[in-house]
Amino acid sequence: MTMPAKPTETLLLTQDELVQCGATDLDLIGACLEDMFVVHAEGHFTAPPSSFLKRPECPHVADRIIGLSAHLGGNFDIEGMKWIASAHRNPSIGLPRANAVIVLNDAETRQPIAVMEGGLISAMRTAVVQGLAARYLARSDSRSVGLVGAGRIGALVLYVLHHWFPAIDQWRVYDLLPERLDAFARHMEGLGVAVDPVADFRAALAPSDIAVVATTADEAYVTPDCFKEGSLFVNVSLMDPTFELVQLSDKIVVDDWAQCVHSDRVLARMHKQGLLEREGIHGEFGEIVQGVIPGREDDQERIFFNPFGLAIEDLAVALTLYRKAEELGLGSRVKLVDEEWDVLFSPPVSPAPAD
Fold first, then answer.
1. How far apart are CA 84 and CA 344, in angstroms?
2. Beta 170-174 vs 51-53: how paired, if at all?
């Protein structure tokens, strides 16, 4: 095999430059992720367990740093890592809850070809995956969406669903903080989504064709009465649904079984208690996108979708945007890697003479 020319520079991309490359283009990101899920279903990827940095003095489930490394094959053929940090109190001081950096490495030389802001990519791919889930798993005549969690991810999920499902005309939203819920409703109205704020989580979820939870709650509270017949329950969150709600499902769909049970989220806890095995789920989402197994088969099915969130999703989107940046000439180039041993064995540089 002929090795490619060794990259001598690394492309740095800011969030604004990523937007110029299409980071907020829902159809671009959707097509990219559908391709990625097929590659995942074909097994052309490597994804070791995530590395969690969790300090005991910071007990909240959202106070952590996660390192997610992976290789994605197929027409992507890229390696890299997302380093995502989160602090649950950040929004109260005007900061986003999570921030991230993505590094892309050439799959053969493993030289760093790009370093980019990862928070936007992570948020967009998270929201778009839920939209794809609705395409394959929700009823085609769905008219109502219920959301618990009036945050950035919740807003993006509603925006994606509004873009791809114009027939939906009911948007019920609940949040623990009334002022945040009011601000959320005003924000969504500006995006063309007429949100109906409701007084409790049951009023948001129970009547909805597509129910979404996107919070940082660390204890289960959403009971089976919130999972109506024929609906899709999208568990973006960590621990919101009870075991009993999950057990009501006619189909459980995950993005990656191994990653789901490696975590401390609801399916992992059920697995550890012997309540759920691989044979008890319908399958992985890529198998549905690929056409190997069916998605929704009738209008009465209750389908529970539990995406863990995969590093290969971030890499797929990041590579797509990197390629676009190369076409457009965007980003700043820096030389991070010198020739081997230069630092140790180059002739010493004499200090400049004093004036």
1. 33
2. unpaired
Q: Which pTM value belongs to this model?
A: 0.90
**DSSP label at residue 220:** -
Nearest 10 degrees: Cα torsion 252, 257, 261, 262: -150
* 3-class secondary-structure state, position 209: coil
Q: Are 264 and 271 in contact (CB under 8 A)?
A: no
Catalytically annotated residues: 82
Check whether 9 has a pLDDT greater than 60.
yes
Instruction: Identify which of 72, 176, 170 has the alpha carbon closest to the alpha carbon of residue 125.
Output: 72
Please tell me the distance from the alpha carbon of residue 111 to that of residue 105, in angstroms, as a whole number.
Answer: 5
Instruction: Please return the burial class of 291, using the count of CB atoms within 10 Å of its CB with bins 0-12, 13-18 and 19+.
Output: exposed
Domains and their CATH numbers in the chain: 10-121+311-338 (3.30.1780.10), 139-306 (3.40.50.720)
CB hemisphere CA count around 317 (13 angstroms) = 34
- pLDDT 10s digits, 144-167: 999 999 999 999 999 999 999 999
Radius of gyration of the chain (CA): 22
